[in-house]
Amino acid sequence: MANVYHLDLNRKVVRGARVALLPGDPGRVEAIAGDISRTFGSNSVKLASKREFTTFLSSVLGKSVLVTSTGIGGPSTSIAVDELAQLGVTTFIRVGTAGAIQEHIKNGDCVITTGSVRLDGASTHYAPIEYPAVADHGVVSALISGARKAGVVFHAGVTASSDTFYPGEERTDAFRKYILRRFRGATRELRALHVLNYEMESSTLLTMTASMGLKGGCVTGVVNRGSVGRITKEALKKGEENAIKTAVRALEYIIMKEASST
Predict the structure, then answer these.
(1) How confident is the model at residue 135 (pLDDT cuts 50, 70, 90)?
(2) Residues 6+ positions from 9 with CB-CB distance below 8 Å
(3) Are 21 and 66 in contact (CB under 8 A)?
(4) In the CATH scheme, what is the homologous superfamily, with its name and number, of domain 11-260?
(5) pLDDT at 189
(6) Which of 18, 225, 240, 249 is flagged as catalytic?
(7) How far is the C-alpha of 129 from the C-alpha of 85, rounded, in Å?
(8) Are strands 53-60 and 154-162 parallel, antiparallel or unpaired?
(9) Active-site choice (171, 199, 240, 258)
(10) How far apart are CA 94 and CA 80, in angstroms?
(11) Annotated catalytic, 137?
């Protein structure tokens, strides 16, 4: 049985998994798989690691669940989502970090994305820019339930998803201090439009899943103030942990819904 090229996986080794959690960082995969094992009393095993893509196989309520890293940004995310879909995965949840745009959102809070502003390029290879990047309402509901069960402060709403970390998020700590005209004032405008946060993968993920008849969602832990904030170790740790807790506890609701619909 041939493996998909980038993830180095095949249908046999994924054991019928239909749900995948998708951190960007390969180093976060084992932590998520470990939290799944502790929460549900199951085992997790490493399946593959190639380039930015590391995958662990876990189990939730007797059902296989994958944890696969996507790397940073839309292009590598599109590869992970496409190849996982080829292997039978139908529900995809990004588990990542973000910079807050709204003042009331604090470090360590989580943002549950309902839809994304498409500031990327990869998603346009799957659907025209007029097509909305929207999360599946069932996945959003499960993430909200997971956050409540974990006791995590969360905010549900619209995310801005940029191709770049520095200019696309109007960051002032880039090497080049000049900001292109198209990005000047972007954060202020997004704040006025009630956009909650910046991150780099959700628009690709949600455009792909919605346009291909799959289910997608995204939860990110806030680790800084978007466009200006420095990321400290403490903020990163808290944001990562809360996003992981939310996503892992959401799995129970997702797996139960999957079981009831089959």
Answers:
(1) very high
(2) 3, 47, 48, 55, 83, 87
(3) yes
(4) Nucleoside phosphorylase domain (3.40.50.1580)
(5) 98
(6) 225
(7) 22
(8) unpaired
(9) 171
(10) 11
(11) no
225 belongs to the catalytic site: yes
The predicted-structure confidence for 223-232, as pLDDT tens digits, reads as follows 999 888 789 9
**Per annotation, catalytic residue among 52, 83, 199, 258:** 83
d(CA 69, CA 76): 9
Domain boundaries of the chain, sorted by first residue? 11-260
pLDDT reading at 201 higher than 70: yes
Question: What is the per-residue pLDDT across 87-123, written as a single tens digit (0 to 9) for each?
Answer: 999 999 999 999 999 999 999 999 999 999 999 999 9
Whether residue 243 contacts residue 108, with contact meaning beta carbons closer than 8 Å, is answered with: no
Tell me if 8 sits within 8 A of 52, measured CB to CB: no
176 catalytic, yes or no? no
Q: Is 83 a catalytic residue?
A: yes
In the structure encoding, which two tokens stand for residue 262, read together? 């089959």
The owner of tokens 């700590």 is 173
Mean of pLDDT over the chain: 97
